[in-house]
Structure formats: C-alpha cells, structure tokens
Amino acid sequence: xxxxxxxxxxxxxxxxxxxxxxxxxxxxxxxxxxxxxxxxxxxxxxxxxxxxxxxxxxxxxxxxxxxxxxxxxxxxxxxxxxxxxxxxxxxxxxxxxxxxxxxxxxxxxxxxxxxxxxxxxxxxxxxxxxxxxx
Length: 134
What we know:
Distance between the termini: 73 Å
CATH superfamily of the domain at 6-93: Ribosomal protein S6/Translation elongation factor EF1B
CATH class of the domain at 6-93: Alpha Beta
CATH topology of the domain at 6-93: Alpha-Beta Plaits
Order of helices and strands: EHEEHEH
Largest sheet: 4 strands, antiparallel
Helix content: 25-40%
Strand order of the largest sheet: 2-3-1-4
Number of strands: 4
Radius of gyration: 30 Å
CATH architecture of the domain at 6-93: 2-Layer Sandwich
Strand content: 25-35%
Structural class: alpha+beta
C-alpha cells in the first residue's frame, strides 16, 4: 500500500551558505519535494556549536514519505557541513489526538443569577431538612 507524502519543516545550521543546496538535494534524493524555502542567513551563535561561533540559519518546508524521514535524518547527521537540524511537522498540519469513548454533549453554562440567601431562608431550609430526617 502506497502512503502519501506529509508536509514537514526543517530548520538547520550550516557551516557555509553553499551547503543549503546539499540539504535540498538530500530531500530530493529521498523523493521529496521542497515547497517553501527561506535562504540561509548568517547568524552569530550564543554558544559554540562544534567549535563554530557563527553559522548560517535556514528553514525549508517539504513533502516526504513518513518512512523516509528517518533515513533523511541519518543522512543529514553524516554531513559535516550541517551543524544542527530539526525536522518537525508544522503546527497547521498537526491533527488533534483522537479521544476514546463517547463524545460529551455540549452543555450550556447556567446564568450566573443566583438568589441571595438570607438567614430566614436558611433557617426554613434547615427546618425542612430536619423534618425529612425524622
């Protein structure tokens, strides 16, 4: 059974901007297709990553079979020019987890108009409860 491609997003830190083409080529190599891409921009890192104090940060949305994501991740880990990367499912395409059991009906909230209880009303209710218990 052939599954359809899902939309993913990858954010990456690269040693040089030319490595961006390598990332896109890897996606294409696994029969993926790039939908949106933000070119890698220079970035000063807050802390050294693999002894680099600056890198190029880029983001790319792509479609790929879910079975190929693990292989793409392993291939990116082997690239020395890719310092870090993160592949996620974009929030707009995430599905809410299905709940098991019956669906709860929508219950309309009651109006907040409660009557004010006075001592006389409370004493009458207490007397009624005492009579019921006898």
